[in-house]
């Protein structure tokens, strides 16, 4: 006998009601969210006696609904990227199948006025079997989709009702849900009873609202499942459902200007409220347009995630995402890789975001079996696949924000994708289709790919991509618009070279933008034995199979604070571009439809980072796509290096931000710093204590600096190592970390070859080299006394031998006392910058504590470098410390621990201040790139082993504490 269970069935539940739109109806609903009774088991085949009304669940525990049981102490979260955490034997799943039994007792409110009553489950991961008052109602499949049942005949009024649900973690559906995220189970979206009127119920309502950009006319057709009147008071519409209404003039909906009209559909027994947005999506002449305007997606891929709640988001979480996106110049979101909570889509309609709504389908792990048995290409799975598409499209069809449907993610190619596309074209011809993985584009309307190099994207922009074998398909694809479904993998420090991609999207019409991977780090809040909080990633819950911190690859940290990558993205996505134009300013409007009347242009003149003057620029109105030259006011004379910073800020509150919110900025250099005359050099003295060069006391034996004024100093030592970034480690790209480590760059040998004392200089010659090779870096330190409190240092580095790889970085490291805790600098800031990141940072004067200079990546790695620094001070609370400056800008990194400790740490809580303030001054870093999943560092941002110089001046401030 074959034991096959209900959750291994290959058909959608026959008892479920047909999919329909998510409607805001005046018919009553009763939320069953809250605390339920719960029992956890390791297998799914336990007795189902708990479904009986009289069952005694006193021994059970409480669990909130909606929630994931793993985040409430039952079972454990597990993370895999592509590999299924069970054997591939579709549709069978393991006997070890974590199972949650749920019970909820409720009373129908008095006067529950329902002809029929539906039980609606918003999302259950992954399959459930449901009983009401002891009778089986049906089953669910499709974790991120709604299932409804008619429970009218089972409900009791006047006596408590008992709802019992068995949820299994693994089901046939799990084979279709191999998204790169935590495996988290349970009833994670709301459960409701939904009243339906006995007659003329508006179970389903479909809105088609188009806009003719040539005439400004709107078209509206609302169909309903019962005879009804459609009313849009603002437009004077009062029509029968099904009637086609033409409106002389409407304001169109767009992500920039999300105009919605309140409408109602009334059948006499029920009224459904709608928010109608008029817009027409089309592919015209190879371009994806809305209202005749080609789109440029400045987008992100968004998973639903919260560090405590997993995918069970609250409305506040969803609103936070939308507001953060709007505030960071993001205009589009791909709902990777499943339909989100419907409330999120309402927020996208309201605040304005273009949406690619993606089906809950991913079979990625079959690549490990060379796609043998891929459910997306197996006829037995067709019904389940099409069911998922149908349920998404029916639920979400009325959202103006959704402009593309996506068939799913990473499911190879195959017949069921074609069947899903067929069904969709038939039922919603108003939106084009996207699916990234079938590169033939057989079933879709737009060409899309992920993680392409800049060169490959450019080739597509020029329609010069490598051809498909099938000439007809190739010609069809070559005429399609291109969307970069995933790019700029935002894992850890990075992503690099965002600008290069954006420049291409803006240059070639065919390139209609893309979606950065991904919105948020999926780090789960956890704490160490001694109570320090950190964010857990794959492996932290004892998983045998896992993909480590690949789950933490977002633009937001898990607690939704923006990472440096998000700030860079905001800069790259600016809808207004400002640049020097002679002695004026060119202001270019990059919006699709908006003019610039909502912005105020504030200017600020700073010299050496200090304010000299400010004002507001008079910018004439500039229509979308146009630009204008603006004269700058006559600026006062300044001393030192001066910049004018112009900031375009919101002139008045918008729904998504307050007046004053910065939208775009630019900085114009107005005066360079005059090079000061070289100071006279003082003499070098040798004594029994060592060699004295100005404020510096050196060890005569090894030429190392021991004291700077009263401060004990360790170093300097030549520094080439950096704690590898996720992009250096590159789990899915070209990894430099193993190259660097095998070369021994993480444990170089330092030798002092000569300590030469001259009248006016101390010269220390060193040879720094990896073990077991003849490669080396010759570093020569020339120290001069520029005063009693000022020490000059010139570091010259000469590589020896055929260095075949770039260096991680090149600089010198000083250990200072940890009483120096404050850092002020004049350079780029306030955030971190590497050669191909840090676009968000402007030149200015900034202050941070050493603690606040660290960027808390979920997985510790190189971070916190400030670039283009002209001078910096590292001081204690009393102003004593060290000032560093140089004739040329340098990189500055200040840490309370060594690079080696950062390199060893697995979580930020592993890092402990070691009693020093470690100061690294660098001549360069290797770029960042995005090889954690995608291309490496572009040639312009490599750091080759080449002759280099670093000229510095160390100035002792206040009185150092001897010691
Ligand atoms: C791609 C996936 O679509 C996405 O879900 C995520 O896993 C991303 O990569 C990496 O974080 S697939 C990739 C292995 C090319």
TrEMBL record:
An example Gene Ontology biological process: lactose catabolic process
Keywords tagged on the record: Glycosidase, Hydrolase
The EC number(s) this enzyme carries: 3.2.1.23
Annotated GO molecular function terms are: beta-galactosidase activity; carbohydrate binding
Report the SMART domains cross-referenced here: Bgal_small_N
| SUPFAM superfamilies, sorted | (Trans)glycosidases (SSF51445), beta-Galactosidase/glucuronidase domain (SSF49303), Galactose mutarotase-like (SSF74650), Galactose-binding domain-like (SSF49785)
One Gene Ontology cellular component: beta-galactosidase complex
Q: Boundaries of each Beta galactosidase small chain/ domain copy?
A: 690-955
Record InterPro entries: B-gal_small/dom_5 (IPR004199), Bact_Beta-galactosidase (IPR050347), Beta-gal/glucu_dom_sf (IPR036156), Gal_mutarotase_sf_dom (IPR011013), Galactose-bd-like_sf (IPR008979), GH (IPR017853), GH-type_carb-bd (IPR014718), Glyco_hydro_2 (IPR006101)
Q: Which reaction does it catalyse?
A: Hydrolysis of terminal non-reducing beta-D-galactose residues in beta-D-galactosides
Which protein family is named in the record? Answer: Belongs to the glycosyl hydrolase 2 family.
Q: What is this protein called?
A: Beta-galactosidase
At the highest ranks, the source species' classification is: Bacteria, Bacillati, Actinomycetota, Actinomycetes, Micromonosporales
């Amino acid at each position: 006998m074959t034991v096959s269970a209900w959750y291994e069935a290959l058909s959608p539940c026959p008892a479920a009601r047909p999919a329909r739109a998510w409607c805001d109806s005046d018919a009553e609903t009763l939320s069953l969210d809250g605390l339920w009774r719960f029992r956890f088991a390791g297998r799914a085949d336990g007795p189902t006696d708990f479904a009986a009304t009289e069952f005694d669940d006193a021994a059970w525990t409480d669990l909130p609904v909606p929630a994931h049981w793993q985040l409430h102490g039952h079972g454990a979260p597990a993370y895999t990227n592509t590999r299924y955490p069970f054997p591939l034997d579709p549709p069978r799943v393991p006997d070890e199948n974590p199972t949650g039994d749920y019970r909820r007792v409720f009373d129908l409110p008095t006067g529950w006025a329902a002809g029929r009553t539906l039980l609606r489950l918003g999302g259950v991961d992954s399959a459930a079997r449901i009983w009401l008052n002891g009778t089986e109602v049906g089953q669910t499949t499709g974790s991120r989709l709604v299932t409804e049942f008619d429970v009218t005949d089972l409900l009791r009024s006047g006596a408590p009702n008992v709802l019992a649900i068995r949820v299994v973690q693994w089901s046939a559906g799990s084979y279709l849900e191999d998204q790169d995220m935590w495996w988290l189970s349970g009833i994670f979206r709301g459960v409701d009873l939904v009243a339906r009127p006995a007659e003329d119920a508006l179970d389903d309502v479909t809105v088609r609202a188009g806009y003719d950009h040539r005439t400004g006319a709107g078209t509206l057709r609302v169909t309903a499942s019962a005879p009804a009147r459609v009313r849009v008071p603002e437009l004077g519409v009062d029509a029968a459902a099904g009637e086609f209404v033409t409106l002389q003039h409407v304001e169109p909906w767009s992500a920039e200007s999300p105009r919605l009209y309140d409408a109602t559909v009334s059948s006499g027994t029920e009224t459904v409220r709608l928010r109608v947005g008029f817009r027409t999506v089309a592919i015209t002449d190879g371009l994806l347009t809305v209202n005749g305007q080609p789109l440029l997606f400045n987008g992100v891929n968004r998973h639903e995630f919260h560090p405590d709640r997993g995918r069970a988001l609250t409305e506040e979480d969803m609103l936070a995402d939308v507001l953060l996106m709007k505030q960071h110049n993001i205009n589009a979101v791909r709902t990777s890789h499943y339909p989100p909570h419907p409330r999120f889509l309402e927020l996208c309609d309201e605040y304005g975001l273009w949406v690619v709504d993606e089906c809950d389908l991913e079979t990625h792990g079959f690549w490990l079996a060379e796609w043998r048995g891929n459910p997306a290409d197996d006829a037995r799975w067709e019904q389940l696949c099409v069911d998922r598409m149908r349920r998404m499209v029916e639920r979400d069809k009325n959202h103006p924000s959704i402009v593309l449907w996506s068939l799913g993610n990473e499911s190879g190619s195959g017949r069921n994708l074609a069947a899903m596309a067929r069904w969709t074209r038939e039922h919603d011809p108003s939106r084009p289709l996207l699916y990234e993985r079938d590169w033939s584009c057989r079933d879709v309307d737009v060409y899309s790919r992920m993680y392409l190099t800049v060169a490959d994207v450019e080739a597509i922009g020029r329609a010069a991509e490598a051809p498909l074998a099938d000439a007809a398909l190739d010609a069809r694809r070559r005429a399609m618009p291109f969307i970069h479904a995933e790019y700029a993998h935002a894992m850890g420090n990075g992503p690099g070279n965002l600008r290069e991609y954006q420049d291409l999207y803006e240059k070639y019409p065919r390139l209609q933008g893309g979606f950065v991977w991904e919105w948020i780090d999926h780090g789960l809040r956890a704490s160490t034995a001694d109570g320090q909080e950190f964010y857990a990633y794959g492996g932290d819950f004892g998983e045998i199979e896992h993909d480590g911190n690949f789950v933490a690859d977002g633009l937001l940290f898990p607690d939704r604070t923006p990472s440096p990558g998000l700030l860079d993205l905001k800069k790259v996505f600016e809808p207004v571009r400002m640049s020097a134009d002679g002695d004026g300013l060119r202001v270019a409007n990059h919006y699709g439809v908006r003019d610039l009347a909502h912005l105020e242009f504030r200017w600020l003149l700073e010299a050496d980072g200090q304010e000299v003057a400010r004002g507001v620029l008079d910018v004439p109105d500039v229509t979308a796509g146009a630009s204008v030259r603006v004269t700058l006011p006559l600026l006062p004379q300044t001393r030192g290096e001066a910049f004018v910073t112009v900031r375009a800020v919101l002139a008045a509150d918008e729904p998504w931000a307050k007046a004053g919110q910065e939208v775009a900025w630019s900085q114009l250099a107005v005066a360079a710093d005059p090079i000061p005359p070289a100071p006279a050099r003082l003499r070098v003295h040798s004594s029994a204590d060592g060699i004295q060069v100005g404020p510096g006391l050196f060890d005569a034996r090894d030429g190392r600096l021991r004291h700077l004024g009263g401060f004990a100093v360790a170093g300097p030592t030549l520094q080439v190592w950096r704690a590898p970034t996720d992009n250096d480690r590159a789990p899915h790209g070209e990894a430099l970390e193993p190259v660097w480590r095998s070369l021994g760059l993480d444990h170089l040998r330092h030798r002092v070859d000569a300590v030469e004392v001259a009248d006016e200089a101390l010269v220390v010659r060193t040879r720094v080299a990896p073990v077991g090779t003849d490669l080396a870096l010759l570093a020569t330190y020339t120290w001069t006394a520029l005063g009693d409190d000022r020490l000059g240092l010139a570091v010259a580095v000469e590589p020896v031998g055929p260095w075949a790889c770039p260096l991680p970085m090149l600089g010198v490291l000083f250990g200072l006392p940890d009483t120096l805790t404050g850092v002020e600098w004049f350079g780029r800031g306030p955030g971190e910058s590497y050669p191909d990141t840090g676009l968000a940072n402007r030149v200015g004067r900034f202050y941070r504590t050493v603690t606040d200079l660290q960027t808390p990546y979920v997985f510790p790695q190189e971070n916190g470098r400030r670039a283009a620094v002209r001078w910096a001070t590292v001081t204690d609370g009393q102003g004593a410390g060290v000032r560093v400056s140089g004739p040329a800008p340098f990189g500055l990194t200040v840490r309370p621990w060594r690079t080696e400790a950062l390199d060893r740490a697995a979580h930020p809580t592993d890092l402990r201040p070691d009693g020093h303030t470690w100061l690294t001054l660098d001549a360069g870093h290797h770029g960042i790139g995005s090889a954690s999943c995608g291309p490496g560092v572009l040639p312009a941002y490599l750091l080759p082993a080449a002759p280099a110089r670093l000229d510095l001046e160390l100035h002792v401030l206040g009185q150092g504490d001897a010691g």
